[in-house]
Sequence to fold (620 residues):
Amino acid sequence: MFPVYDVIVVGAGHAGCEAAASAANLGSKVLLITMNMQNMAQMSCNPAMGGIAKGQIIREIDALGGYSGIVTDETMIQFRMLNKSKGPAMWSPRAQSDRQLFSTKWRLMLENTPNLDFYQDSVIGLTKKGNAITGIKTSLGHNILAKSVVLTNGTFLNGIIHIGENQSKGGRMAEKSATGITEQLVEWGLESSRLKTGTPPRIDGRSLDYSKMEEQKGDETISGFSFLDTNKPTKQRSCWITYTNTEVHEILKSGFHESPMFQGRIQGTGPRYCPSIEDKINRFAERERHQLFVEPEGWDTIEVYVNGFSSSLSEEVQYKALKKVPGFKNCKMFRPGYAIEYDYFPPTQLKLSLETKLVNNLFFAGQINGTTGYEEAACQGLIAGINAHQSINRKEPFILKRNEAYIGVLVDDLINKGTDEPYRMFTSRAEYRTLLRQDNADLRLTERSFQIGLASNQRMEKVNKKKKDVKEVIELLKKINLEPDHINNFLSDRSSSTITQKTKASQILLRPGIDLDTMVRCIPIVNETIGEYSKETHEQAEIQIKYEVYLQKEEEMVIKMSALENQIIPNSFNYENISSLSNEARQKFNKIKPQTLGQASRISGVNPSDVQILMVYMGR
Fold:
């Protein structure tokens, strides 16, 4: 019934969908197997993509040839570029999505991807021969053979749902959990542990009084996520902001005695940066209110998502507390919030390719690695899918460095530092964030993806044109001489010092409060010279001119650090021979087996002195 597949992807969440797409587009024969084909790329929690650092990841996925950016652009109901008041390194796109359209669009794109088959069934086990994976076992009794397997099980591995004192097995509300895989992997020698995440209640939007809330509109201009020409909405839906209060907090506290989190029924660690509402009022007792975002779930649905009110308290307590939130006095609940506890495998057991160290051609991606968030999962799926293809074709693994992408930072953090709580990406995790901006993801990554055969000719042509146009605009701005008569009124209107002699346009652009878009509109000679170039080209040229000094400094840091990154540590290196290493460093080196001195230096628990000792020993 089934052929021997090159790659089997288990799970069709954000990680699984990207993994299947990337492997298939590279030419592998792929099977995507999932419990429910109606829920592909399901937005189990917030119906939104992007945000701080997460938006950069989606743009990187798109630049590499992934689908998440395209799907988001074509199903969004609102777009905002966050942090525009800060420098461009902090700008982060975010989109509110239509939950149902998002899943439908993903499925259509996958169905139109060559080399990709689908099957609906539960995977209950894996098969291997010696040290290599050979396939999967399903609940319907199928043994499906494959050269490689990518596990993207999300929250389904032995998942338990908690609502107050009620517990039920499940990987998501109304969907059964997956059993058998964890137990088998542990039997094979891998370590597993437990994590927790949660989701808020869903509300009937017709029952809310929006006059009691603050309206949050989308941006007038939608730049979107994909570097391709996607279909973006011509109108947008508003989100709304409201707040909890002391009365809400007191009602929530009344349910603490039956809280699974406070009573110890939940063993897994929850996300530090996205805590439940009961965790927030417990940890931040001094705060009288917490912000809530009231977000529509789509164009045509009345369902509303209450972002910031994640809870595992009883349904009765959740409902009573919500009714005291401004605008929620007459609210009707569709379903309560809940917590879900699930198995994950500490990611220090993986190689940088996301292949397990113990079993060849077995890859992990997404929440199975301890991460949280659609974006973090999707980028891991993309990398795992690429590397599953690369591995079975005996090609070099595709690994992004920390100075190349946020994706590189994420994978490097997971493998070298591990995580004992759900890992979420932030701009502060990236030491080269001025280089790793959302606007230049295509310039950084598309050529690398094109070289392995994933990014299309169309993408590469667009990148080459963008590079050419940006270079031309920068050169022209450095040549344009602006006379005082041409520009002083413009400068005065913007409270900027007037000039007394000819000044290059590029020098004027360096001034605070001056942007290239306005110069093009208001200064005829600038408009005549570069007005025909795209807005995207103008923005990129402006960033490169304004931040030239900062970009050069980060590039110099990259060059200095590359000395460590280029010093290869043989896989067979014997750390027991170095008696002066600390015991912790020796244990970590033996467990993680860093491939370079740079990687060794970033392992949690390894001191600079350990790296120096290792460097000296290798030098000998």
